[in-house]
Design brief:
alpha+beta; 2 strands; single chain; 4 helices; two-stranded antiparallel ribbon
Amino acid sequence: MYDKILALMQEHGPMLPVEVASKTQLNSFLAKAYMEELVQQGKLLQGEKIGSTPIFLLPGQEAQASKRAEELLDTSRT
């Protein structure tokens, strides 16, 4: 599952756990747990929080994560 999540992140860029869950058939809690383990392994980073959940990203996707966070925050305010 770790490799599948990393492949999704490579293909789609920074993602929220709920987005990973929808593409992997996991529930969002389990997706977040896998993603947090990948952070501990140094394979993912946590970006800005949207609500109480951070955006997860691969190293090198920092600019994409900032843009994604802005987009998500803008749509949540409307």
